[in-house]
TrEMBL record:
Keywords: Signal. The lineage of its organism: Bacteria, Pseudomonadati, Pseudomonadota, Gammaproteobacteria, Enterobacterales. It holds the Pfam family DUF3304. This is DUF3304 domain-containing protein. Residues 1-21 form the signal peptide.
Length: 181
């Protein structure tokens, strides 16, 4: 190939590469500044089980998984400023009979594996997309597990039981015989 042809090919490649780089930069910059709409902070995850007689084995909020319903597990990312349409995806597993006696092995430590497998087969898993109510300031997310696989979330700074806490359901609710559809 002649030097002139090589020079033309090199210039064409350079021009296309420069145009691609400029377009890529423009697209990246266009999505960056949305007046604080994309500012997130980490917050704790916690949960409150309102259903008597069942336990929550684990739950997750947008993929951030927590064992049980304890509080203070770090972290979930939540927008610094609330905006309409905020939704979280909740997944959870319940043990509908947490007080069932599972026999121990005859020899050695631990549960009888067959009995444990029968117990574990009764676990149920659920998921729901839950809107986040408006908040002024967030310290994380508290998930409330209610009867009939209903879920509410709170993302403000008040504590459960406080006058300003919006979720008022008690923590010893019974699961009805049939749930509304």
């Amino acid at each position: 190939m002649s030097q002139i042809k090589l020079l033309h090919v090199a210039l064409r490649w350079l021009r296309l590469h420069t145009q691609f780089a400029a377009l890529s930069s423009l697209l990246i910059l266009a999505g960056c500044d949305q007046s604080g709409a994309n500012e997130y902070s980490g917050g704790n995850l916690g949960a409150i089980n309102h259903v008597a007689g069942q336990s929550i084995n684990w739950f997750s909020v947008d993929g951030y998984r927590v064992p049980g319903t304890g509080g203070g597990y770090c972290c979930v990312m939540i927008p610094d400023k609330w905006r309409p349409g905020l939704v979280v995806h909740i997944e959870w597993e319940i043990d509908p009979n947490p007080h069932e006696k599972i026999p121990m092995r005859k020899e050695g430590a631990g549960y009888d594996q067959n009995a444990y497998a029968l117990h574990k087969a009764k676990y149920r898993q659920y998921s729901a997309d839950v809107p986040i109510p408006e908040y002024d300031e967030s310290a994380g997310i508290t998930v409330h597990f209610l009867p009939c696989q209903q879920v509410k979330v709170y993302a403000g700074i008040a504590s459960y039981g406080a006058d300003t806490y919006p979720i008022k359901e008690p923590t010893d609710m019974k699961e009805p015989a049939t749930c509304p559809k």
